[in-house]
Amino acid sequence: MAFGQLPSVVACGGGHGLYATLSALRRITDRLSAVVTVADDGGSSGRLRKELNCLPPGDLRMALAALCGDDHSGRTWADVLQSRFGGDGPLAGHAIGNLLIAGLWEKLEDPVHALDMVGELLGARGRVLPMSSAPLEIIADVIGHDQSYPDEITELRGQAAVARTTSDVQAVRLEPQDPPAHPEAIAAVEDADYVVLGPGSWFTSVIPHLLVPELAQALLRTKAKRILALNLRPADETSGYTPSQHIELLAEHAPQLRLDYVLADPSFANDDPHLEAYSASLGAQLWIADVAVRDGSPRHDPLRLASIFAEIMGL
């Protein structure tokens, strides 16, 4: 990073967790790229994926909405992207942004060019990139899914099913097993000054980035500082897991992974006496900071999160 230049930051994830990260990061740098999971198979995204044989646009749409500015135009576009058709016809439930993105993909046949065009239309503060060139399927090995055989491992398929499960997830993998990483996602990670992983659904939004071989290698070899942002509380798929166990899951799926910082809110971190040691085992300094909204709901506050990211990055 040149003297006086804002840092180049890549945020990896999907869904609401990535939305929170991007909403914070766009306040401190305009050299920002989102590398987004493409395994969603539920709702509007799942329908478009099946009907058009395209990447699921939902998480990409949310990332673009997060990068919209706080002025009237930005807020209006973000609201339009996220709005859904009502009624009970064939368009019911589809997000307007999903249809816009899918339509441009069909017209341009280049997913990144289309996303860049949407970003330009919105005045987005950064770029949105799919982590893979192909739509992916998440497969999880879980215990307790079949009540008749509570100790047996069951295979659970699909992002929507895995994200909702309250069974004990042992491991996840992707299909195809060796999916192609998108070249621009690899380039963004390799050229970054900082890479932020998380928060988000651990098995369906965070860990998948470590299961695309070319992207995982880029995350390992990049000279960027790696920041892991932990959730404010466990999601359904990691119900009952401590912060330390979240870090352990990353290490199990990517044994060579090393981190520089682990960021955790005291509401989740303070009851875990092992968190600092687990962070250190991956080379990371633990930062415990109040980054939650003040109404008590499990949501990150973009301004508070931005302040901590800026402090970590020395801005």
UniProtKB/TrEMBL annotation:
UniProt key word Cytoplasm: yes
Entry superkingdom: Bacteria
One cellular component term from this protein's GO annotations in UniProt: cytoplasm
Main localisation: cytoplasm
SUPFAM superfamilies reported for this sequence: CofD-like
Keywords, sorted A to Z: Cytoplasm
InterPro entries reported in the protein's UniProt record: CofD, CofD-like_dom_sf, Gluconeogen_factor
Gene Ontology molecular functions: LPPG:FO 2-phospho-L-lactate transferase activity
Keyword check for Translocase: no
Compartments where located: Cytoplasm
Gene Ontology biological process terms, A to Z: regulation of cell shape
Protein family (similarity comment): Belongs to the gluconeogenesis factor family.
Alphabetical list of HAMAP family matching this protein: Gluconeogen_factor
Functional summary from the UniProt entry: Required for morphogenesis under gluconeogenic growth conditions.
Protein name as catalogued: Putative gluconeogenesis factor
Source organism per UniProt: Propioniferax innocua
Lineage of the species this protein comes from: Bacteria, Bacillati, Actinomycetota, Actinomycetes, Propionibacteriales
